Amino acid sequence: MVCAECKTQSAVTIRPSTRERLCKACFTTAIESTVHETLQQENILDGVKVLALGVSGGKDSTVLAHIMNQLKQKHKYNIELKLLCMDEGIKGYRDKAIEVVKQNEKDLNIPLTILSYKEEFSYTMDEIVAKKGTKRSCTYCGVLRRSSLEEAAKRVNADMVATGHNADDTAETVLMNYLRGDIRRLYRCTEAVTPKQANSTIESGTEKELSINNLSNSTIRRCKPLLRVYEKEIVLYAFYNALPYFSTECSYSVDSFRGVVRTYIKALERETPQAIKRIIKAGDIFRSAAGDNTFTQGGGTFAKCKTCGKSCAATKTSKSPDTQQCSVCVLLNGL
Ligand code: SF4
Ligand code: ZN
Predict the structure, then answer these.
(1) Which mutation among 134, 256, 260 tests ligand 1's pocket best, with the greatest number of atoms within 8 A of CB?
(2) Near ion ligand 2, which residues have CB within 5 Å?
C-alpha cells in the first residue's frame, strides 16, 4: 500500500488519529506539523525568548524535546530551548530515567538543569512514602513537581515551560475533573497554554479551602505543545525516529486516581475508537461555554506563603485561619 501523502513510498503505519496510511517520513512530518499548528493557532510562542522543556526521560517529554528541536530549526523559531528535569528521589525509577535525560541533552545539544526534591524540600519521594505510605503519593509528588519546575524555570530565566502532556492525558484530566466536581479546572483543562496571570495578592480575609486542586501556584506560563497528539502516535514517533526513552512505570503510581481513569478510557476506546477525541471535544465545549467567567478563570490571585515566602496560590486552612500557606508547605508540614 502506497503512502497517502507522498504517493511514492510504501505506507508502514496507519496514523491513529486520522486513519491515514503513511510512510515513515510522512508520519513523522504529520506529527511535527500537528505540533507546529498547535503552537501557531494558539500563538503559544508569542513573546517567548526562553522556552524550558520539562523532561523526565519518558516517551512524551523525550518526543516533545525532539520535536521542538526539529521545529525550531525547520521554522526558525526565535527561541532558546532549555531542558529541566525534576529528580523526585525514587530509587530504581527516576535515577534510571535521568540517564536517558542526559542522553537527550547530548543528542539535542540543549542545556539541562536537574533539580532534586531533596535539595528543594529536604525530602525525597522515597522518604515521603516511608513516612506516609504510598496512598496519595502522586498528590505529594505532583504538588512538589509544580513548585520545583517553577523554581528551575526561574533559574534558567525561562518565559514559559512546555510539558509533554498529550491528547490521552488531556482526556484523562477532563474526566478526572468532572468526577471530582472540580468545575474550575474542568473549564480550563483543554487549554494549550495557561493564561497570563496577574501577580496580585489574595485579599486578607479571603476564605479558601485547602485543596491540591486549588489554583496553580505557577507564575510562569505553561504550555502543552503535544495536546493534539495521541499517545499511540507518540510511541510510533519515538519508534520511527529511534528515540531512547525510559518506559518503566513508577512503583508509587498504583494508587493514583489518574491510573483508574486511564484504564477506564482505554476500555472506552475499545468500544468507541473516537473516545479520546470526544472527551477532549466535551472539554473544549465546557471551555468555550465558560467564556470570561472569573470563577472559572481562577481569578489569577497570588500571595506570599507565610512559611516558605514563595509566591503561591496560598490557602487559608480552616485549622489555622491566620496562616496563609502554599500547598507545598501544607503537605510537608503534615508529614
Ligand atoms: Fe510521582 Fe506519582 Fe509520577 Fe511516581 S507516578 S513519579 S509518585 S506523580
Ligand atoms: Zn510555602
Answers:
(1) 256
(2) 305, 307-308, 326, 329
Residue nearest to atom 4 of ligand 1 (CA): 250
Q: How many whole angstroms from 294 Cα to the centroid of ligand 2?
A: 25
Kindly give the pairing relationship between strand 200-201 and strand 112-116.
Answer: unpaired
Q: 253: Cβ below 6 Å to ligand 1?
A: yes
Q: Along the 335 residues of the chain, how does pLDDT read in single tens digits?
A: 899 999 999 999 999 888 899 999 999 999 999 999 999 998 999 999 999 999 999 999 999 999 999 999 999 999 999 999 999 999 999 999 999 999 999 999 999 999 999 999 999 999 999 998 888 888 899 999 999 999 999 999 999 999 999 999 999 999 999 999 988 889 889 999 987 654 333 222 222 222 333 334 467 999 999 999 999 999 999 999 999 999 988 888 766 788 899 999 999 999 988 899 999 999 999 888 877 664 545 445 567 888 888 776 645 554 554 557 888 998 998 88
Q: How far is Cα 1 from Cα 200, in angstroms, rounded to an integer? A: 59
For residues 275 and 171, the answer to whether their CB atoms sit within 8 Å is yes
Q: Is the minimum distance from the CB of 148 to ligand 1 under 6 angstroms?
A: no
